[in-house]
Specification:
By secondary structure, the chain is mostly beta strands. Helix content is 0%, strand content 47%. The strands form two sheets. The protein has a six-stranded antiparallel β-barrel with strand order 1-3-9-6-5-10. The chain has a two-stranded antiparallel ribbon with strand order 4-8.
C-alpha cells in the first residue's frame, strides 16, 4: 500500500567498499526516495539516517515502492549498526514497544488441538 508511511523489514545487511552500508528487504508499505530520512527500529535504540541510494536487481532507482525487493544504501552507518529483524520506517510513523499484554487460548484434544499438555 503506497499511501501509508514507508516500512521495510531488514532481511540482510552488507557493507560495500567505498559506498557504505546496504540493508536489503521487501518494502511492506509506502515509498522511499533517495534523500529521505528513515528510522531504524527494533532490537536496539532507535537510530535515524538518510537513504542515499535505492537498488533493485543491480539497477539504481530514485525510489522504491511497496512490494519491491530493494537494497537501501544508508548514510553514516557501519554494518554492525543494523541487523536482520530490525525495521526501516518513515520517521515518527512507528512507536517501538518492549512490553505487551496478550491472551492465548490453546485448543484441547476434543477441539482438534494438543494431545499432550505443555
Amino acid at each position: 500500500d503506497q499511501d501509508k508511511p514507508f516500512l521495510m523489514a531488514v532481511e540482510d545487511v552488507f557493507s560495500i567498499e567505498g559506498r557504505g552500508t546496504v540493508a536489503t528487504g521487501r518494502i511492506e508499505q509506502g515509498i522511499v526516495h533517495v534523500g529521505d530520512k528513515v528510522e531504524i527500529l527494533g532490537l536496539r535504540d532507535t537510530q535515524e539516517t538518510t537513504c542515499t541510494g535505492v537498488e533493485m536487481f543491480q539497477k539504481t532507482l530514485e525510489e522504491g515502492q511497496a512490494g519491491d525487493n530493494v537494497g537501501l544504501l544508508l548514510r553514516g552507518l557501519k554494518k554492525d549498526d543494523v541487523q536482520r529483524g530490525q525495521v526501516l520506517a518513515a520517521p515518527g510513523s512507528i512507536q517501538p514497544h518492549t512490553k505487551f499484554e496478550g491472551e492465548v487460548y490453546v485448543l484441547d484434544k476434543d477441539e482438534g488441538g494438543r494431545h499432550t499438555p505443555f
